[in-house]
């Protein structure tokens, strides 16, 4: 089993901006409804690419189903790593409603608690009303944050409802980030600047498409402050705000499109990431997907249940070892074929 990933090794959004692993939104958003830069929020929110079962945070949030008795994907990975005693404790909770969450101890996991959040099945919720999926998903994040705050310390979220429940990843990222930002600001106001009850909120990502969605929405919901930017970008930002009619910039770091920024340079291919050997793939295997544990599973139909069981292969895929290392969001990872 891999060594637990400690909170001290998980970078904040502010640190990721300074290291160049996150870039400001380009072009700069003009939507007045988007929040302003906040050093407080950026220092309390983190991103990491890892298996959530390896994080030594106070709490982790599981993408559970209504039964809370385990299933496929991240839910199955958490139950498997925590041990059978988690199943026994979950049996005493009598399930959970969609849009809500319940908490248990973490058993064999390196975290202390597991918050089991039941997100919506996207197309089923959308059949009720267009806004219903976001209402239920937002409720999951708020309820989970309230439960985590009772325990204090740190909480790490898996991506809720984006797997077999079919919630579009970019839309889910927007809801998750917006709810966390709103909750942090409300908590800070209630605490009157005393630092709040949660030291850190972590978004734990695994799938490359989840990473792309968060790299799109983090700069919009948690834009960088001037202090978060590397010195070169600070100077560029200052020039852009003082010039009435700035000339076209020749600095490719500030003029390239958002899509181009996600493409790695050759020198970045091995930066902050351990290369892994891609498993061989036959024609019959091209319809499979990769689970949280790095297992190959049948690609499910949208609108199914997150609680559907999957059978484990005899041996784990090499991706399990790569995901468990806790490497942080290198841009080059977006070019990998996961």
TrEMBL record:
Gene3D superfamilies, per this entry?
Answer: Leucine Aminopeptidase, subunit E, domain 1
Q: What is this protein called?
A: Macro domain-containing protein
Give the Low complexity compositional bias ranges: 236-257
Tell me the PROSITE patterns matching this sequence.
Answer: MACRO (PS51154)
Q: Matching Pfam families, A to Z?
A: Macro (PF01661)
Bias category Basic and acidic residues: which stretches?
258-289, 306-319
Segments forming domain Macro: 32-222
- Region (Disordered) residue spans: 222-338
Upper lineage: Eukaryota, Fungi, Dikarya, Ascomycota, Pezizomycotina
- SUPFAM superfamilies this protein is in? Macro domain-like (SSF52949)
